[in-house]
Write a structure and sequence with these properties.
With 513 residues, this protein is of the alpha/beta class. The longest helix has 20 residues.
Length: 513
């Protein structure tokens, strides 16, 4: 298979609780995860008591590494396309070198054992490149350790790591197969609070904290299910203190074997989820945070970003603008990057031109965030064409909702998705996403959908014939003049049908011509 300029990287994360292999592919200006294998190895089991990796855990780990090696070979991944990294449990174990020598010989995988600072850096890169975190704290909780990074103007300023992972805390404080006693909960939280005394900066780092790792993803999923809101992944979900406290109470009342029955909690993480949740709870308490933002990115993405972004960005491993990068990346995956697709670029230009002209005329408020969401919808409105022309507006919405769009909140992704859904026909509705909407969102959706559809209509012949528009008001109606160099009857025909949609969105009649 000719892969052209395609570049791939398999990141193998040998964590304390789980081993995970993720393949990232980059090509033609886009990147995405293209494969993943996961195994709950629990190599860190018993480490806190003995200081050593146990035989059972090492056997599971070696077998998993051999599977990963065979997968990489079958996928045609060369040694320079594989980066295997080990974290807390292997780093801290007294017999780590003996295990790695044996496992590396059997699997033919070379493993980098990350220093605490390296592990924290990869978590930081994952957080700042998948959220809009500028000033605040990044929290990464794994099975063996927890990392905190103070972020200032998107740069890491303070880095620290503690052996406070979900597996270690469970073994130390919650080892019995019974519901947790209040005393156990207090002791664990007090232990974490004591450990955090060496990081007084945590309470002086702003009001925002972003969490990564499997514990965070499971807690966010459980909170979503409990709130019974529309869900399409946990990217950008905000887990409040109140929701976390309620979830801790629910989990504590159950024996470990029953915690996997809580919606959103994976059975393989059930016995350690309470320990991890209590650590997060203590960090929020010590830092005075009201909530924690959750991202689906993790250490694997951090490793990838360091290589991918640093290569193409003059050695800097940060996106300039996370929101813009995530939209352009998704558009490019489906051949809709504006620099390669004149139709998409022109629809975006027309939609934003209409937005600005109508705002200047006092027809709508001209909110900058609404404008950005309209731009995102314009770039993504046709990505569903890669599935089929029929119902491509619905296919586009599906792809938008399931891509995650790092940097945007779930509510914003829903607005973009619904605007895309209605860019061809139908009267816009929040539908199943009313549960996560804010006041005014229905009006925002109507305006976004109307402008996106008008822009698509004006570019219906896909020839960029309508160069721009001229808006004027005439006795309360909006007159839309078209700037063209030739007969634009297709555009006039298409746009002339949108009077009802436009009036619903802006409260004014529409004349096109």
């Amino acid at each position: 298979m000719d892969r052209g300029d395609e570049q791939r990287l398999a990141v193998i994360d040998l964590g304390s609780n789980s081993f995970r292999l993720v393949v990232f592919t980059a090509r033609d200006g886009w990147w995405k995860r293209t494969d993943e294998i996961y195994e709950a190895v629990r190599i860190g089991e018993g480490l806190a008591a003995t200081g050593e990796l146990g035989e059972a855990g090492m056997a599971r780990a070696q077998a998993t590494m051999e599977v990963f090696s065979h997968f990489c070979a079958a996928s045609g991944l060369g040694p320079d396309e594989i980066d295997a990294v080990a974290t807390s449990a292997i780093r801290d174990a007294t017999n780590a070198r003996a295990f790695l020598d044996r496992a590396e010989a059997a699997s033919r995988l070379r493993v980098r054992v990350l220093a605490k600072e390296e592990e924290a850096r990869y978590g930081y890169l994952a957080a700042v490149n998948s959220t809009t975190l500028s000033d605040g704290v990044m929290l990464d909780i794994g099975g063996g350790s927890m990392q905190l990074v103070r972020v200032e103007r998107r740069l890491s300023r303070e880095v620290d790591s503690w052996p406070l992972g979900a597996v270690r805390m469970t073994e130390r404080f919650l080892a019995d197969d019974k519901p947790a006693k209040p005393k156990q909960l207090r002791e664990l939280r007090a232990f974490v609070a004591g450990a955090l005394e060496r990081a007084p900066w945590i309470g002086r780092s702003g009001s925002r904290i972003v969490g990564i790792g499997g514990t965070m993803r499971n807690l966010a999923a459980a909170a979503q299910r409990e709130a019974d809101v529309a869900e399409f992944g946990v990217q950008g979900f905000v887990l409040t203190r109140d929701a976390l406290d309620a979830l801790v109470d629910e989990l504590a009342d159950l024996p470990p074997s029953e915690r996997g029955k809580v919606a959103g909690i994976k059975p393989g993480r059930a016995d350690i989820i309470l320990g991890g949740a209590l650590v997060v709870q203590a960090v929020l308490e010590e830092g005075g945070f009201d909530a924690i933002d959750v991202t689906e990115a993790g250490l694997r993405e951090g490793v990838f970003f360091e290589r991918y972004l640093a290569r193409d960005n003059g050695g800097e491993a940060l996106f300039d603008d996370v929101r813009r990068a995530s939209v352009v990346n998704l558009a490019a995956q489906y051949g809709m990057a504006p620099e390669r697709n004149p139709h998409v670029a022109h629809v975006a230009r027309l939609a934003l031109g209409l937005f600005d002209e109508l705002a200047a005329a006092g027809v709508h408020p001209g909110d900058s965030t609404e404008r950005e969401l309209l731009w995102a919808g314009a770039l993504l409105h046709d990505i569903g064409m890669t599935i089929d022309y029929d119902d491509h507006h619905k296919h586009s919405r599906y792809l938008v909702l399931n891509a995650g769009l790092p940097g945007f909140s779930p509510r914003e992704v829903a607005l973009i998705g619904q605007a895309v859904r209605y860019h061809r026909k139908g009267m816009p509705s929040l539908g199943p996403f009313a549960s996560i909407a804010e006041p005014g969102d229905e009006d925002r959706l109507h305006r976004m959908s109307a402008l996106l559809r008008l822009a698509e209509d004006l570019e219906r012949s896909r020839d960029q014939l309508v160069r721009e528009t001229r808006v004027s008001l005439d006795d309360g109606r909006v007159r839309l003049g078209l700037v063209t160099d030739a007969d634009a009857r297709v555009a006039l025909w298409a746009a002339g049908r949108e009077g009802e949609l436009f009036e619903r969105a802006f409260g004014r009649g529409l004349e096109v011509g």
